[in-house]
Design a protein that fits this description.
The protein is α+β, with helices and mostly antiparallel strands and 128 residues long. Helix content is 27%, strand content 23%. A hairpin with a 5-residue loop joins strand 3 and strand 4. Helix 2 crosses helix 3. The chain is globular, with a radius of gyration of 18 Å.
Length: 128
């Protein structure tokens, strides 16, 4: 039987009621929470032509959480590949799984409560 490529459905979802998940969310810096809640704030970092690969390579950096997004662009501008490099602590610990709707809601609520209690903490890292 031929093996198929794993999809997101094959990855177990977070157990948003589990203590590992709750510990991870509660230890997350406000800038990580903001990006997980409303998305990254990208700023162009570098761009270059690669003679060997015959393509453009460009990198963007999130001004909040410092995640790098590197894209390989074909000559016509189509995105061939995208790779993310995250700061330590941004990704969930191994074994927790991917985030489902309930887990995303938990992070969103934690970010909102953090914002209410300490609005200045979300201002850090906004200048790239």
């Amino acid at each position: 039987m031929a093996r198929r490529k794993p999809t997101k459905r094959d990855i177990p979802v977070f157990n948003s009621d589990g203590s590992d998940f709750e510990d991870w969310v509660s230890s997350m810096p406000p800038t990580f929470m903001a990006c997980r809640d409303v998305g990254h704030v990208w700023r162009a970092l570098t761009a270059r032509w690669d003679d060997e690969l015959y393509c453009f390579i460009r990198t963007w950096r999130c001004t909040r959480c410092r995640t790098d997004r590197t894209q390989v662009l074909l000559r016509n501008g189509a995105v061939d590949k995208t790779q993310y490099t995250y700061e330590e602590g941004y990704n969930a610990p191994r074994g927790i799984g991917r985030m489902d709707r309930d887990a995303k809601s938990t992070v969103r609520l934690a970010a909102t409560l953090q914002l209410l209690s300490n609005p200045e903490s979300f201002q850090q890292g906004t200048q790239g």
